[in-house]
Amino acid sequence: MTQAEEKLKVGLAAAELAEAGMTLGLGTGSTAGAFIEAVAKRKLDVRCVATSEATAAMAKRLGLNVVGLDAVAEIDLTVDGVDEVDKGLQAVKGGGGALMREKIVASLSKQVVYIGDSSKLVDVLGKFPLPVEVSAFAMPAIKRDLEAFGAKTTLRMANGKPFVSDEGHWILDAGFGEIPDPDEMDIFLNMTPGVVCHGLFIEMIDRMLIARGGRIEELTPPNR
Ligand code: 5RP
To answer: How much distance in Å is there from the Cα of 98 to the middle of ligand 1?
Structure first.
């Protein structure tokens, strides 16, 4: 089975978790897109909060009812993709640049189910460059801090200009090779002025569905 087929399969499996009456959090990216298409096909009466402008546009085009956080205090179920996840269910997200809204939506959700093809499960996080969303003003200082911490950094670009997130910030992609202690990195980044969000999702996932060939593997956090 190809990676694209695994994405479709896991998107379809996650769509079965949606129920009429639910408020759903819709992730961003190709795997989340497979979920959104499958859930739209089920024609359930659901409300949806989108984690990006791109996802909101897609969901509306498919006929889903997209609402803002003014209409919603709590989200029943959020389904989103990952760039990397380890067996402890710590993840790296933000390859699509939607990390900030993705983290906000996950934090408001009763159940967070992340989905991925088999390439996303890793032993140690860090091969995928960690997206760090920053204030443009602070970018040079944060770049120096990240490099002092051992990262090779790249300012994310789009059409020859810095990529601007839906929240209006720039993204530094920080390649560490390995992040042996994600908790320490989380604390370091949270304490760095000008970092508005980062792509480490620590203790946020309730269930992880991984498509491997024709099967769906389910992982749950070790200490819950
Ligand atoms: C977007 C994300 C995506 O979930 C992540 O990049 C995975 O994307 P894909 O499903 O296309 O592989 O975090 O910000």
So the answer is: 8
Quick one: pLDDT at residue 224? 64
Are residues 88 and 135 both part of a single domain?
no
Return the residue whose CA atom lies nearest to atom 6 of ligand 1.
95
- Whether 6 sits among the annotated catalytic residues: the reply is no
Judgement on whether residues 37 and 78 belong to the same structural domain of the protein: yes
Range of the domain at 160: 130-198
Report pTM.
0.97
Report CA(45)–ligand 1 centroid distance (Å).
Answer: 26
CA distances from 29 to 7, 95, 150, 172 (A): 10, 8, 28, 19
Shortest-distance atom of ligand 1 to CA 98: 14
Instruction: Please provide the size of the chain in residues.
Output: 224
Query: Can you give the CATH number for the domain in which 41 is found?
Result: 3.40.50.1360
Going from the Cα of 163 to the center of ligand 1, the distance in angstroms, rounded, reads 16
At residue 103, φ and ψ (nearest 5 deg) are -70, -40
Determine whether the shortest distance from the Cβ of 33 to ligand 1 is under 6 A.
Answer: no
Same domain, 92 and 156: no
62 with 103, same domain: the answer is: yes
What digits encode the pLDDT tens for the residues 106-162?
A: 999 999 999 999 999 999 999 999 999 999 999 999 999 999 989 999 999 999 999
The one-letter amino acid at 221: P
- The total domain count for the chain is 2
- Tell me how crowded residue 214 is: count the other CB atoms within 10 A of its CB: 9
Answer whether 84 contacts ligand 1 (Cβ < 6 A): no
